[in-house]
Amino acid sequence: EIVMTQSPATLSASPGERATLSCRASQSISDKLAWFQQKSGQPPRLLIYDASTRAPGIPARFSGTGSGTEFTLTISSLQSEDFAVYYCQQYNKWPETFGPGTKVDFK
Amino acid sequence: EVQLVESGGALAQPGGSLRLSCAASGFTFSNYVMGWVRQAPGQGLEWVSAITGSGGSTYYADSLKGRFTISRDNSKDTVYLQINSLRAEDTAVYYCAKYFRGSSIAYWGRGTLVTVSS
User: Of A17, A57, A64, B95, which one's alpha carbon is 20 to 30 angstroms from that of B2?
Assistant: First the structure.
């Protein structure tokens, strides 16, 4: 199975700052990567699929880049509602796998 | 509007079985891959299983093969997850998920809680 890793585990930032989250796959997954946001007590929400395509209704401040084994989610200017946990997931090969998550919290 | 409503979560004994259900609406159910993802208390997301639109192909997390069975009834717009030989480590919220065509998970239900304890 493909192992996904994410860094950092926790990102402390202030509203208005730029946040950069990283995700790495143990083997090439082409662009078959999604990013999800999860807030406490809620189900995850799809932000980005196919590595760089924003899901419907997702603000333009969220962007995804990368292919192969290295991927990045960037939040250009953090809003208060963006403080949450972010997961990457590969769907290039069964079984699909998630990364352990990056928590974005207030500095 | 896509809606996914899970049910069947309960307090169950180790060694027992549970069948989770997910009732879908708002889309042509038989056209889409459906799946299950779980989340243990305070932990991250763990992909569990998926099934193709026709039900002809099923996929499982390596660590869960043998005890979990996914199925679907396209006449009822419902996907199921059968869990046998329950263990304490199966305690989690189980989310139902709908996929985009040929792509990632697109929508999530609100989840159903399974607690395994004697």
Answer: A64
Contacts of B105 in chain A (CB under 8 A): 34, 36, 46, 89, 91
pLDDT-derived band at A107, boundaries 50, 70, 90: confident
Which three-class secondary structure state does DSSP give residue A80?
Answer: helix
**Whether B27 contacts chain A with CB within 8 A:** no
Residue B109 to chain A, least CA–CA distance (Å) = 7
How would residue A75 be classed by pLDDT, with cut points 50, 70 and 90? very high
pLDDT of residue A93: 96
Contacts of B61 in chain A (CB under 8 A): 1, 95
DSSP codes joined into one string, chain B: --EEEEE---EE-TT--EEEEEEEESS-GGGS-EEEEEE-TT--EEEEEEE-TTS--EEE-GGGBTTEEEEEETTTTEEEEEE-S--GGG-EEEEEEEEPTTS-EEEE---EEEEE--
